[in-house]
Amino acid sequence: DQQFGLTLLASDQEEIADAFAKSPSGRDRFTHGEWAHTQTAPRLSGAVSNLTCTVVETIAYGSHVAVIGRVEEVLNDPSGIGLLYYNGNYERLSHRGMQP
Length: 100
What we know:
single chain, 100 residues, mainly beta, three-stranded antiparallel sheet, globular
């Protein structure tokens, strides 16, 4: 079974978000932040959550492919404040909602 990782960034990880949005190469992206490369999926230190998922289905749409996954493992930092990119800006997301 194919697996992939999903990382929910913390509010202080804007640089990592920018690197993934702007980096021309997949490998270059992982030079930002402290990553542990496990057998299943990379994990980012300091992230709000790191999820390991198994691919259930892929759906081609235009030039993209949507990947549907089943969550197999979740590692959370419950004290973390999440990072959200919304309407062209970064916002902080906590259990109380968006914060500037």
